[in-house]
Specification:
Elements lengths: L2 H18 L7 H16 L3 H6 L1 E12 L5 E6 H22 L4 E13 L5 E13 L4 E16 L2 E16 L2
Parallel strand pairs: 1-6
Antiparallel strand pairs: 1-2, 3-4, 4-5, 5-6
Length: 173
Amino acid sequence: MNIKTIAIAILAGYGIWYTAAGGKQLDERKVSALYGELYSAYAKADEKAICALYGDELAGGFTSRVRSPLVYADFNKAQACASSGDFFRLKQQLEAATGKTLYANVDLSIKSISISSDKKTATVDVLVERRIGTPQELMFDMRSTQTDVVQRDFGKAFFTRSEGSVNFYKSRP
């Protein structure tokens, strides 16, 4: 057996291992990196990049309160993708209504990360804060406490489930 054949066999073995196990394993660093990607996509107002972080089977539900009783709503990937676009469109609408350049700010604070024993999923408790306004006036302030489920497949981490509650502290159409 020559060295080239051995190298190919090693690479093939690594590829099989990575596909079957290694590319599916999560750790805290990989989970934190996913939230970093989400933060970056929001900072760039990149709806497609945000949506790409959601798994095809993304599902979940949130309880929300504006000024009325609690309302629970389920969602899927298409609705989650649309929601991120709605945030950026709201900013544009507020800019048009006020004639001011506004900032859109999203903060993600990871409270805890729990990796499953098989390292295939992670459960993450996180506080997400979305704001739109100027340094002098806050026009939109939404905060959610949520529990997200993260998976990893073929080396890419993505969100598969999210449950939580959303509170609107300030909302000006």
